[in-house]
Amino acid sequence: MTVRHSPGHRGESRDLAVNPLFSREPLRVPRYALPQGQMDPDTAYQVVHDELMLDGNARQNLATFVSTWAEPQALRLMAECAQKNMIDKDEYPQTAELELRCVHMLARLWHAEDPRHAIGCSTTGSSEAAMLGGLALKRRWQHRRRAEGKSTERPNLVMGINVQICWDKFADYFEVEPRYVPMEGDRFHLTPEKAVELCDENTIGVVAVLGSTFDGSYEPVAGIAAALDDLQSRTGLDIPVHVDAASGGMIAPFLDPDLVWDFRLPRVASINTSGHKYGLVMPGVGWALWRDRDALPDDLVFHVNYLGGDMPTFALNFSRPGAQVVAQYYTFLRLGFDGYRRVQQTCRDVATRLAAEIADLGPFELITHGDEIPVFAFRVREDIGNFSVFDVSAALRERGWLVPAYTFPKDRTDLAVLRIVVRNGFSHDLADLLLEDLRRVLTRLEKQPEPHRSADDTSNFAHGAETKNVRRPGRH
User: Fold this and answer.
1) Same domain for 171 and 234?
2) Which of 55, 68, 130, 233 has the most C-beta neighbours closer than 10 Å?
3) Phi-psi category of 137—alpha, beta or left, where left has phi over 0 and alpha has psi -120 to 50?
4) In this predicted structure, what is the pLDDT of residue 312?
5) Considering the domain boundaries, does residue 60 fall inside one?
6) Which of these three, 331, 361, 394, is where a domain ends?
7) Contact in structure between 295 and 269 (CB atoms under 8 Å)
8) Domain tally for the chain?
9) CA pair distance 289, 305, nearest whole angstrom
10) Which residue intervals make up region (Disordered) (predicted)?
11) Are 428 and 203 in contact, with CB atoms under 8 Å apart?
12) How far is it, in rounded angstroms, from Cα 233 to Cα 210?
């Protein structure tokens, strides 16, 4: 996000005043210009530390999907590796080896046909990983079209309007027409029938989301793949699927092992996930995997020689820390399959119990129940006229709880909801504290004659549920 300050911004006319503890110098520090000289490191630390006290408490942030807790050992390893550049694979070969091991572990978890030769890489997060998946789909489509002597102009990508905002960025940055399936009635994500309706010879792929940021639901990946199989049998169009499993990719394998959504489906060409969401690592790592070498055109891959061998790399970013990759490997070792299952099951148990108890309060109606990814959305009942979801969000913020309120996208903008993300570290005890505060604010809100806040009054921190830049088909 670009931060802009108007010329009359009140902070630009005042310096920072430093507490003259122990007669430290200087006593005033410019806000928006480099200081003329050096200062004591303790003074610099205190200036920054004091300002950061105004941030919210990360553990009470129920808006973000990103991990806000880690074991001390993981944090220690990250500190030990902070100076290692992930791109320098010849200088840090063992860090590169740990990255490769993580790719192999994920390939097995997602049922790749040959995990030992899996194609994949780490990224800065699931957004970069998603863009890599989309880029591979586009390049693969271009190669096929050129081989057939056909035009490579006007590629399109089919997806539900509930996709994360990174897909809108991908479409804009890489000149692909986004074909969004709008929400309708109680259908809040992509369905097989709606996906096929928008596909044509210029469709580079269909994005299926395993864990919608709007409500926490799984899209029917197997059903979408089956509908595309049928489309191919009828028309000859062979359209691959990319699974955006930013959250669900680290939930479903442990809690829903019978759900078929991954490389068990031949039509699934690629998958992305976030290591720093339900992968349980601090922010800064995602993963992208392809089912085989054919799914990732080789002309997108750069080859680095290290330790006398070939290390293929494919990423939008270049220099980035290896610390998060090391932390991911540590977490895989530390928890194993059963540990991940227990952590994710606890998150789901907290989510489903919290959702049920919120529903029992009376004024709210559940949209989802937290029984897929541990995320659920709920609305104020239609017969409640004296407060809105935006009033509830603002009131909870007074106690430090960050619970986003937002409207759903095009064709369901009438639906305003609150959403709660349950992550590792948000315990049953914390859920009880949230419920106590919610009951307390309801007592006050129910006395209001009418809502005080609307969507225009709330800050935008929906984390993935932002409004898309919807463009008409045929334009990009």
Assistant:
1) yes
2) 130
3) alpha
4) 67
5) no
6) 331
7) yes
8) 3
9) 21
10) 446-476
11) no
12) 26
b/e code 177-193 from CB counts within 10 Å (16+ = b): bbbbbebeeeebbbbbe
- Same domain membership, residue 319 and residue 212: yes
Res. 474 pLDDT band, cuts 50 70 90: very low
Task: Identify the CA nearest to 251 among candidates 272, 213, 278.
Answer: 278
- Whether residue 373 contacts residue 251, with contact meaning beta carbons closer than 8 Å, is answered with yes
- CA distance from start to end of the chain: 23
List, in sequence order, every residue forming a beta bridge with 181; answer none if it has no partner.
Answer: 160
Looking at the predicted structure, is the pLDDT value of residue 85 above 50? yes
DSSP-derived secondary structure for 226-254:
HHHHHHHHHH-----EEEE-TTGGGTHHH
Q: What is the pLDDT of residue 473?
A: 38
Residue 471 lies in a domain: no
Q: Which pLDDT value is given to residue 462? A: 54
CA distance 105 to 102: 5
Whether the CB-CB separation of 254 and 344 falls below 8 Å is answered with yes
Q: How far apart are CA 155 and CA 144, in angstroms?
A: 12
Where in the sequence is the domain holding 36, given as residue range(s)? 10-55
Which of 311, 331, 351 is the last residue in one of the domains? 331
Q: Which two tokens stand for residue 397?
A: 């913020």
Q: Are residues 34 and 89 in the same domain?
A: no
For residue 400, the domain's CATH number is 3.90.1150.160
CB atoms within 10 A of CB 10: 8
Query: How far, in Å, CA of 273 to CA of 263, rounded?
Result: 14
Per the structure block, which two tokens stand in for 324?
């998060």
Per the model's pLDDT, the better-predicted residue between 460 and 387 turns out to be 387
Alpha helices in 163-299 (DSSP H): 166-173, 192-197, 221-235, 252-255
- Residues 38, 182: one domain? no
pLDDT level of residue 168 (50, 70, 90 thresholds): very high
Cα–Cα distances (Å) from 160 to 179, 193, 194, 196, 198, in that order, read 8, 12, 9, 12, 11
Spatial distance between the Cα atoms of 428 and 441, rounded to a whole number of angstroms: 20
Rounded CA gap, 294 and 290, in Å? Answer: 9
| 303: enclosing H helix or E strand | strand 302-306
**Residue 322 included in any domain:** yes
Q: What Cα–Cα distance (Å) separates residue 230 from each residue in 15, 65, 193, 221, 291?
A: 66, 35, 11, 14, 21
For the residues of 385-453, what is the DSSP string, one character each? -S--HHHHHHHHHTTT-B--EEE--TT-TT-EEEEEE--TT--HHHHHHHHHHHHHHHHHHTT-SS---
